[in-house]
Amino acid sequence: MIIVGKTDIGKLRTENQDRFRICGIDDSTGIAVVCDGMGGTNGGGVASEIASNAVYERLCISYREGMEPRAVKSMLISAVTAANTLVYDRGSEDESCRGMGTTCVAALVHENSVSIASVGDSRAYILDSAGIRQITSDHTVVQYLKEHGMIDEEEAKHNSMKNVITRAVGVEPAVDVDYFELSAEKGSVILICTDGLTNYCADDFLYSKIYKSPPEKTAAELIEYANSCGGKDNITAVMIVI
Q: pTM for the complete prediction?
């Protein structure tokens, strides 16, 4: 298993409010957490820092080899829920951080089993011999409109509210966490990234750049491409090669 990650401030932002944490527990097990902060001049970076560290540390402490699937699910959801409390409490106590929040995608990959918890519009994809598929669902206004048949796919690409999220870690006292579990074939790639990347990269482009390519080189190339297209946001890409 190979795990790599890279983040970049982009071309227009004055601060990188993205955070990621990665770890290979052993040769067949890896953990990755990606967060994209929001809220105020300093709040977004604070929120993503608190959340990424909290989730990562809880997963590292709690994971045990041979855990049952339901225990893995509980561990991931509990880690994100705990991060939500920490971010919310900090925002309540610190006026400069009031209203801050962050997206969060947390993944545990063990051999061919992939478990993911998600809040917000940062994404997880799986790339394999069958192509590329988005694992997570965006918690955005535009995704809601699409799901309810109010706009189509093409309209969604250009909608002015495509980056307005409907769910985030730390904004409310409680958070609803999505959970996904799937099996992956040998050689599959799990991509976890922020919208600073996906706003510029279509699925077929991501597949052509990532699948069966050296991950260390590819992460830098994806960020370079997003910056060449405008780099309007912070950009983060994490890849787990199974």
A: 0.94
